[in-house]
Amino acid sequence: MGNVAVIGSQWGDEGKGKIVDWLSSRADVVVRFQGGHNAGHTLVIDGVTYKLHLLPSGIVRDGALSIIGNGVVVDPWALMAEIEAIRKQGVEITPERLMVAENAPLILPVHGALDEAMEMTRGNKPIGTTKRGIGPAYEDKVARRALRVCDLEYPDVMRRKLERMMLHHNALLKGLGAPEVSVDEIYDQLMAVRDDILPFMAVTWQVMDQARQEGKKILFEGAQGMMLDVDHGTYPYVTSSNMAAAQAATGSGVGPDAINFVLGITKAYTTRVGSGPFPTELEDEVGQFLGEKGHEFGTTTGRKRRCGWFDAVAVRQAIKLGGITGIALTKIDVLDGLKEIKICVGYELDGQRLDYLPASQVKQADLTPVYETVEGWSESTCGARSWADLPAAAVKYVRHIEELIGAPVTLLSTSPERDDTILMQDPFMAGR
Ligand code: IMP
After folding, report:
1. Can you spell out the DSSP letters for 17-45?
2. Residue 412 confidence (pLDDT)
3. Residues with a known catalytic role
4. Candidate from 41, 130, 270, 272 with most ligand 1 atoms within 8 A of CB, to mutate
5. One digit per residue, pLDDT tens: the chain, 432 residues?
6. How far is the CA of 404 from the centre of ligand 1 (A)?
7. Do 127 and 134 contact (CB within 8 A), yes or no?
8. What fold is seen in the domain 266-430?
9. Is 129 in the pocket of ligand 1 (CB under 6 A)?
């Protein structure tokens, strides 16, 4: 029996919510290890919909401990608002059930202002961020000027650090022609929220260590997807954290040996929100069909997602870089009714064939996908719970994807319903 990390293998929105929900019902500890409230995981349990952004999915499960790890950037106001909203849905959230790493950096209101101001400077080439202040907060962490959860305990330290930080940011905001942000205002807001947050603060690496010693099952819950990874994604059109499974260790304070199985959530086609390269994007009626049938609108910002064919090259790369053991293939039912389906098996650049996604943004923008066309199916796959329920062409599609990406399909999801799943292997039991 081992621990499982769940990560996205594309540009996020692969349908992690349902899979994480299923896994979290069997985990003792669920930990978030990167990102912040830019994420959006929708869980439907007994007909009740929960929309989570920052809280780990274990929060809606009795008996599971939820941890927000040090790799997450925490907006204390967003966290309290989410806690209140979920409490209103009847979920008990106590410091015994939710712990926040004492060394997690804080997102402050100035980070949202900077996120917005920086996007303005990018003119007609914005990143298309969620404007949650994620990037600027991670910048502060690396620049060693971040306020962290533990600083909330000491108002005078908090004030000193805040003054130093604002010296930097206000110079920048002024230079950008944006309104400056007052130290007093942020300080007062922090003083008002600290008593709500501090009870949840914990030495989470010790809690994780204890859980491991007791043989508890840990689920590492990733957000976003490998193509948005700050090192390995379509830089600079990425978010500011690492999605690779290695980050599950660093971002929660355990060694890499704590992760026994990495499940890569993978959509049967491709979507992306925000700007940036997307070689298999479809700006035609097929793209529209996928968007409408797949309800492709962002959970956090409500933005329409761009849609395209499955990119086996990008996913194969994500599997290698992310350390993915097996994939959960989601939303195959969205492809029902298409006469033929295309799969990207390579790229062409300046007359040359590439079998990988190059790092250069110049090259990424110029790639032409090389497609293989496979037969579609007219029957419905929606709600299938065994291979025998699937049309032969759908089985062929899945098997071909496995071959192209070099990883097995561990789980196939055939509708948003929890039980509409075909399980090949239990990730908690199959770990290395
Ligand atoms: P940021 O994380 O707000 O800085 O946004 C950077 C890029 O990541 C933008 O293209 C966002 O649309 C994208 N992004 C951030 N979070 C998510 C997510 O949870 N799902 C999909 N895309 C995301």
Report:
1. HHHHHHHHTT-SEEEE-S--TT--EEEEE
2. 95
3. 13, 41
4. 130
5. 799 999 999 999 999 988 998 899 889 999 999 999 999 888 878 788 899 999 999 999 888 999 999 999 999 999 999 999 999 999 999 999 999 999 999 999 999 999 999 998 988 889 999 999 999 999 999 999 999 999 999 999 999 999 999 999 999 999 988 899 999 999 999 999 999 999 999 999 999 999 999 999 999 999 999 999 999 999 999 999 999 999 999 999 999 999 999 999 999 999 999 899 999 999 999 999 999 999 998 777 778 999 999 999 999 999 999 999 999 999 999 999 999 999 999 999 999 999 999 999 999 999 999 999 999 999 999 999 999 999 999 999 999 999 999 999 999 999 888 888 999 889 999 866
6. 27
7. no
8. Adenylosuccinate Synthetase; Chain A, domain 3 (3.90.170)
9. yes
Q: Is domain 109-197 annotated with CATH 1.10.300.10?
A: yes
Is 76:197 a contact under the CB 8 Å cutoff? Answer: yes
Mutate to test the pocket of ligand 1, among 129, 240, 275, 297 (most ligand atoms within 8 A of CB): 129
Residue nearest to atom 12 of ligand 1 (CA): 274
130 Cα: distance to centroid of ligand 1 (angstroms): 6
Q: Is 71 in the pocket of ligand 1 (CB under 6 A)?
A: no
Asked if the 4-97+210-258 domain carries CATH number 3.40.440.10, the reply is yes
Name the pTM for this structure.
0.96
Q: Could you give the C-alpha distances from 326 to 6, 32, 153, 305, in angstroms and in order? A: 10, 20, 42, 25
Taking the C-alpha atoms of 115, 116, 122 and 127 in order, what is their torsion angle to the nearest 10 degrees? 60
Report whether 294 contacts 271 (CB < 8 A).
Answer: yes
For CATH 3.40.440.10, the residue range(s) in the chain are 4-97+210-258
Alpha carbon distance 113, 92 (integer Å): 33
**241 CB under 6 A from ligand 1?**
no
Cα separation, 343 vs 60, whole angstroms: 37
Contact call for residues 18 and 418 (beta carbons, < 8 A): yes
Query: What b/e sequence results for 17-55 when a residue is b if at least 16 CB atoms lie within 10 Å of its CB, and e otherwise?
Result: bbbbbbbbbebbbbbbbbbbbbbbbbbeeeeeebbbbbb
Q: How many CB atoms lie within 10 A of CB 379?
A: 14
CA of 224 to the centre of ligand 1 (A): 7
